[in-house]
Structure formats: structure tokens, C-alpha cells
Amino acid sequence: xxxxxxxxxxxxxxxxxxxxxxxxxxxxxxxxxxxxxxxxxxxxxxxxxxxxxxxxxxxxxxxxxxxxxxxxxxxxxxxxxxxxxxxxxxxxxxxxxxxxxxxxxxxxxxxxxxxxxxxxxxxxxxxxxxxxxxxxxxxxxxxxxxxxxxxxxxxxxxxxxxxxxxxxxxxxxxxxxxxxxxxxxxxxxxxxxxxxxxxxxxxxxxxxxxxxxxxxxxxxxxxxxxxxxxxxxxxxxxxxxxxxxxxxxxxxxxxxxxxxxxxxxxxxxxxxxxxxxxxxxxxxxxxxxxxxxxxxxxxxxxxxxxxxxxxxxxxxxxxxxxxxxxxxxxxxxxxxxxxxxxxxxxxxxxxxxxxxxxxxxxxxxxxxxxxxxxxxxxxxxxxxxxxxxxxxxxxxxxxxxxxxxxxxxxxxxxxxxxxxxxxxxxxxxxxxxxxxxxxxxxxxxxxxxxxxxxxxxxxxxx
Length: 462
Description:
The chain is of the alpha/beta class. The protein has helices spanning 91-94, 108-113, 148-151, 156-169, 191-194, 226-231, 259-274, 299-310, 339-354, and strands at 10-12, 16-22, 28-33, 38-42, 48-54, 59-69, 72-89, 122-126, 144-145, 173-179, 242-246, 281-284, 317-320, 366-373, 376-382, 397-400, 406-408, 410-414, 417-421, 430-433, 454-455. The chain has 9 helices and 21 strands. Strands 1, 3, 4, 6, 7, 8, 9, 10, 11, 12 and 13 form an 11-stranded mixed beta sheet that branches. Strands 14-15-19-18 form a 4-stranded antiparallel beta sheet, with no helix packed on it.
């Protein structure tokens, strides 16, 4: 069977889901399910077969899928029908519920202890590090039931997304995590697309160590292509509701100004290959962090701009802002501890946008326009129709005049807009909000969603 078709699998509800595998060439494969759906397929000359199954409405009652081919018979048990999401990216997605050494997930032991509450409600898969020079159809994975012992090693952001979704929708949730730290967006992109990028070297010598480095976890992380081949391609076509993505830090130092273009091209290519339409794709803005080795230092600000830009380049895209989800002591910690809030914000995007639940706030305020009035810059926002979380002691704003020198600003709110001024700037030209590698802002919507960092200027990055 294909790698995800095994005991404990979760199938997307009310969908024609793909199911595939290998059999003797020419054999007829017959499939029966405990909910009554049936299907047949014939293995081709290489033994490959593929068909579809109609799934019912979500149910917590374990189901069975029986596959027969010739004298062979396979029973897949403990099958749940519910909502399936595919998570990917680099280390902030990879980061487990227990956290990493030096950066534990905030409150991890409590959430690990309570994970048993979701036993038989949430099943998940962690894809092993498996770089490949050519697309592979096989990788060894295992569906896990949610318990304290299994949840502690599953990725925190997807876990918190899953439990929030499960509680709101009251149905089973399946989570697939395929992520690896320090990887670039190019590493998760298929060859056909990478061949259009003039700076990407796909010659044989680039991949000389792939397959030779043991364990595979120690492989060079900035390689193009190989993580798509080994960690995405085997699952292409598996029935999902949508994707979750947390990546970008590695591209702060590589083709930063092209990130939106390359990220959305990857998203479109994944959607094309899944052949399930414009599947929802929700992703996380990189967190505030002092990229001390990056020159110029503000390249991470440009990456965040690119991430926000990407949100409007394709349908069914949504970005979670993390500007407020770091502690002041985490300026040198690229893996901030607050992953619960990340998962919940992703879940609110899904609940409101993908599931159509009205009344849930899920979009952060974004810069809309600036007007200069009596020496003040009046800033208007999208997604802040009901106002902000505070009127005074607003932090993170800077303002400049014609000399392009920015000064900390005095800020207030007025009629749903934010007024920005400084005694040192008589004729304002531009305003910035948290446009620094590490700067924590405190302005949010009344729903607690942070204003996304922005600048009104297009000055060269310094």
C-alpha cells in the first residue's frame, strides 16, 4: 500500500479519496469498507494501481478497509473518518510539543499530560527525514494515536492546531507532519519548477552526499529539491482538507526578495499535483529574532514583507502573525516557546475560512493607508473595524521626515485610526511599525490579533 494507508489512518470525510498501492501486474484489486463503499482497480504492467473511495460523514467509530488481490488480503483497522491536514516547513514546524533543548514549548508538560483526552480523536504521522535525489513513492511512516507518550514528540504547532480544531468541530482529526529545520523553500520544490530558477544548481555534484550521510538528519539542509522528493512526493494525492506551513528563516539569507514568488509557485505546484483544487494553505510569519549574522540586518524584515505579499497572490492563502508571540529574552532564540497561540491562530484561519464558521476573527490588522494631518501621520488599517486593544502606551512605531532618519513616535488611536508623531519630525514622510529584526509590538485588534509589522516607505534596506 501507499505509505499512509495503514492501521490508524484518518481519511478526509465526505470526499472521493485516492487510495493506491502495488500488486502483481495485471491483478484486479478489490476494496471493501465497513461503511459500505467499494472500489476496484487493475494493476498496470509495473504493478501500480490507484482508485478512489467515497468516505462518509465524520465518525469516531473505528472503521475497516479490506483490500484483496489474488490470494492476498489486507485488513486496515482503526480507521477514523474526519478532517486531515498536512503540515510542513522548517524547524519551527518541526519543533515537538516537548520543545528543543534550550527552548521548551511553553506549558509543555501540562499539555503532554492532557494529551490522553484526545485518544481515539486525533491520530498523527511524523515523516522521517528522507532526502532523495529523485521522487520516491515509498517512505516508512506510522499513524500514532494521541497519548502523552506519542504527543510529546509530535510537532507542537500542528498539535495545538489539531486539538483546537477537534474541540470546535467535534470530529476526528488527522495530522501529517513533514518538516525539517534549516531548509529553504527551494528544498520543498519539485525539479520542474526549480529548473526555471537560474540561480539553482541541479547538477549531479550538488547531491553527491545524499544517501551517503548517516543518519539522514545530518544531511546538508540548504539543498534544493531533495526534501520535496522524499518527504512530500510520497503523499501527493492523499485526501486532505488543506496545508499548514511554517518556514522562511532559511530564506532570510537566500533569495529573500524572491520569496513571495517562489513560495507561491511552490504552493501552486503542490495544489496542481494533489489535483484537489485550490486547497487552503495557511502559514506562519517568521518570528522576531536577531539575525546577527545577516547583512544587512533588516533582511528578515524584507522576508516578512514577502510573506505578507504572498497572502494576496493566490486564493485560499492566509498568514498568521507572530510579532507578539516572543518573550523579550528570546531575541537570540529562533524557536520561540509560544506554539499554542500559533496553532490556535492557524486553526481560526481554518475554521473561519475553510469551514465557513461566522463570527471568528482570524485576520490580523494590516496597513491600509497614511494621511498627514497637522504634523501627524494618520494610519488606517484593514481588519481593525472594531478598534484596537489599547489607546495609550502603544509601542513599536517610528516616524521620519525628509532626512529618512527614524525616531520613536508618540502614538494614540482616534476614530479607528492610529496617530503617529514626534517632536523631532515636523513634516512626516514615513512610518514604520516593528520593522526591525527583533521588536515586539503591543498593538492588536480587540480580538487579540497583532498588527502585522509594516513600513510606508520603500527606502533601501539597511
